[in-house]
Design goal:
Elements: E1 5-7, H1 17-30, E2 33-39, E3 45-51, H2 70-84, H3 99-127
Antiparallel strand pairs: 1-2, 2-3
Length: 128
């Protein structure tokens, strides 16, 4: 059975690391579905959305039911994943910045530096 690196990333504001983590955990518990990045290797990376079902609602198998074979479990997991992720079939690719967005970013940075220099010069004049 293969191993996968499964990650869930959230950007959350908090007073410290613990508060931010608690906010994310609360959100994950309350959301109806949770998105993950699932990585098999460098070339096989998928975005997966999984329904968030509380553990109390998950059906437990009856004691008398025969256990399915590992092959059957893998087939069932593949079928469930494909049913949930029909919209997320592409491999994620790194986003490329356009020349326009780079130019805009550099222009904004330069304008901020220039404004900071002007403010520093004005402060030096009034205090000096």
């Amino acid at each position: 059975m293969p191993y996968y690196l499964v990650t869930q990333t959230s950007f959350k504001e908090g007073a410290d690391e613990v508060e931010a983590a608690q906010k994310v955990l609360t959100k994950l518990k309350s959301d109806g579905a949770v998105g993950f990045t699932v990585k098999y290797d460098e070339e096989n990376i998928r975005q997966v959305t999984v329904a968030n079902v509380p553990a109390s609602e998950v059906a437990q198998p009856a004691a008398r039911e025969p256990r399915p074979s590992p092959e059957q479990i893998q087939e069932d997991n593949i079928l469930e994943a494909s049913a949930v992720n029909q919209a997320h079939t592409g491999v994620s690719k790194p986003r490329r910045l356009s020349a326009r967005s780079v130019t805009l970013g550099l222009s904004l940075f330069a304008a901020g530096v220039a404004a900071g220099l002007v403010i520093m010069a004005l402060v030096d004049r009034t205090h000096g």
